[in-house]
Design brief:
Oligomer: single chain
Number of helices: 10
Bound molecules: iron/sulfur cluster
Number of domains: 2
Order of helices and strands: HEEHEHEEHHHHHHH
Distance between the termini: 53 Å
Strand order of the largest sheet: 2-1-3-4-5
Largest sheet: 5 strands, mixed
Length: 267
């Protein structure tokens, strides 16, 4: 923690960055995101096991970008989100400095994005163990049982879109769900519309999800929507042999074509 604060102060004092995005303890005692522009306030930065939010979601927000060059406290999911955002041209590597945090809480010094990429390549990139167990349980259900499971879960959806807002890869200025000419997805919450919304979002995240789990944590009614995109993480690995967010020059698996792509999933 001390090293993190020192590094943040150094970056702000030397005007290498204009803002540090990190975590602090809020007035209620809960951890919350913080945006520090004054080095004298960097002492409020914390990092512990409660700091799990994917802060990369703020890197594309105009309210944050307006500060100028951004520093960000980054666990592995945040580092991988940064890679996706760079490869999708949503973030310039020159506009971000990463204060990496290793799995055991050490501050990592990344000279540049390439060094961070080497670090990511050495990490375990599959879905977290807890979600792997949940996915294995779901995958044991037959088609009808799976449909009934998701229909029951989606019936709780109130279309608040917190899942979308919390995901760094849902950065569209106008989400497809908000288009009304044509109206792809009904505004109101109903069984068919809810199912359509979740299928649409899952497909938009296919091969781009980095398994942070933030969308599921954000859901106020406890729908495990992250399991849908995490299932597609497994599928992208199984069919295309890739995980998202491991390079700043990756293309999404569903937006590229190679002559030797497997086609077995089409039939
Ligand atoms: S659900 Fe699709 S259209 Fe909507 S913000 Fe996410 S990626 Fe964009
Ligand atoms: S787990 Fe959810 S929030 Fe995280 S990258 Fe995947 S879709 Fe986005
Ligand atoms: S956060 Fe939950 S309730 Fe809100 S739209 Fe997403 S799944 Fe539905």
């Amino acid at each position: 923690m001390h090293n993190l604060i020192l590094k943040a102060k150094e970056l702000l004092e030397n005007k290498i960055v204009s803002v540090i995005i990190g975590f602090e303890t809020g007035s209620s005692g809960k951890v919350r995101p913080v945006f520090i522009t004054d080095s004298n306030k960097a002492d409020s930065l914390i990092f512990d096991e409660r700091c799990i939010q994917n802060l990369a979601v703020y890197l594309t927000k105009k309210e944050v970008k307006q500060f100028g060059k951004m520093g960000i406290v980054a666990t592995l999911p945040i580092m991988r989100s940064i890679m996706v955002l760079i490869s999708e041209q949503q973030l310039s590597p020159e506009n971000v400095v990463v204060l990496g945090i290793s799995g055991d809480g050490e501050v990592l010094d990344f000279a540049d994005i390439t060094v961070m990429q080497h670090y990511i390549e050495k990490c375990e990139l599959g879905n977290p163990a807890k979600e792997q167990d949940m996915l294995a349980t779901l995958n044991r259900l037959n088609m009808q049982e799976k449909f009934e499971f998701w229909q029951k879960e989606f019936s709780k959806c109130i279309k608040c879109y917190a899942c979308r807002q919390s995901c760094p890869m849902c950065y569209c200025t106008r989400c497809a769900v908000e288009c009304n000419q044509p109206q792809w997805i009904p505004v109101q919450s109903n069984n068919l519309g809810n199912m359509e919304w979740h299928i649409l979002r899952a497909m938009h995240l296919a091969g781009r999800c980095i398994s942070c789990g933030e969308c599921g944590r954000a859901c106020p009614v406890g729908i495990p929507c992250h399991l849908l995109t995490m299932h597609l993480v497994d599928q992208a690995q199984s069919y295309f042999g890739v995980y998202a967010g491991i390079s700043d020059k990756m293309s999404s698996v569903l937006s590229t074509y190679a002559p030797n792509d497997k086609e077995s999933f089409i039939i």
